[in-house]
């Protein structure tokens, strides 16, 4: 945490910024180890050259101060409108010069209130520069991400254990979450239990979207299925995603599954320092095109891993898409996760996805996902 703050302050000094207000879940967590729960209330982290202060609502009482142990904490009440912005003014108005905030999480209404809190000051964006610093992980972050990735493997094993004919999706999902929480408790005692979740999607309709919700649908033999495991520790995320079938896999499904696994393996080989994100995407596109499957691709081939989850923290500069020019560097952490979807009613109908996590190294990458993938492992007999 000290190193992060030192790097932030170096950036502030170089760019003439005397105060920063963070309002996003991810950056407040990144610089304080406090992950807030909004419930309609604003939260903030004010950073100057000599002070770091979380700004939290009274409803949380002492928890923000206990959690963000390297910071001061200012608590505001609901008793007067815009008390949050009074606290911001208290922390940042005394400084002079430019102040910064995250334009991507600051509404127009809140920007107007921020301007009133720090009058006659130039306000600049810090969201993108800080994102570029977050995408390179420290050794401590990598150790945590490896631990969380191993917990997702436990969730995958739980899915295989629980999946059976007639079992509803939500029952399998809940079993996997319980197993991951048990593992979090074992490996990270005194953790906050928050946000760990799973998806277990079955059948051609429920698997056609990567983020389709879990339902009451009951598993049938021959179903295409996708497991998604997402353990969260200290606001950090890892994931495991796999295609699976119960009992048997039809011929066209097997062909498409093998193709997606081929792309997955090739993508893993391409992740290395010095390679542009867009070049990986373009090369994998060529393989899909060879099989006349390019139009069935669902989304980009991978994204960063770190302090993020489904509602905060996306690091758009580190995604394996055709429009991302970022060059991979050691200590970046990125997924490989190709997905194709065959529309309902066509042979091989449903969605196929595999997902591994990789640490970029000087010579290639370290694959930190241990759970197997492919037809030789995940045609589950019961």
Number of DSSP strand runs: 17
Largest sheet: 6 strands, mixed
Helix content: 25-40%
Structural class: alpha/beta
Percentage of β-strand residues: 15-25%
Question: What is the N-to-C succession of helices and strands?
Answer: HEHEEHEHEHEHHHEHEEEEHHEEEEEHE
Which strands sit side by side, in order, in the main sheet?
A: 4-3-2-1-5-6
Features:
382 residues, 36% helix, 4-stranded mixed β-sheet, globular, single chain, alpha/beta
Write the layout of secondary structure elements.
Blueprint: H1 2-14, E1 17-22, H2 25-32, E2 44-48, E3 52-57, H3 63-67, E4 72-76, H4 83-92, E5 98-101, H5 108-117, E6 123-125, H6 127-134, H7 139-162, H8 169-187, E7 197-202, H9 203-206, E8 224-230, E9 232-233, E10 236-237, E11 240-246, H10 251-270, H11 277-290, E12 333-336, E13 339-342, E14 350-353, E15 356-360, E16 365-367, H12 375-378, E17 379-380
Parallel strand pairs: 1-5, 3-4, 5-6, 11-17
Antiparallel strand pairs: 1-2, 2-3, 7-8, 8-11, 9-10, 12-15, 13-14, 15-16
Helix pairs in contact: 4-5, 7-8, 10-11
Description of the structure:
The chain is 36% helix and 20% strand. It has helices at 2-14, 25-32, 63-67, 83-92, 108-117, 127-134, 139-162, 169-187, 203-206, 251-270, 277-290, 375-378; strands at residues 17-22, 44-48, 52-57, 72-76, 98-101, 123-125, 197-202, 224-230, 232-233, 236-237, 240-246, 333-336, 339-342, 350-353, 356-360, 365-367, 379-380. The strands form 5 sheets. A 6-stranded mixed sheet has the order 4-3-2-1-5-6, with helices on both faces. The protein is of the alpha/beta class. The mean pLDDT is 96. The radius of gyration is 23 Å and the shape is globular. It has 12 helices and 17 strands. Helix 10 (251-270) packs antiparallel against helix 11.
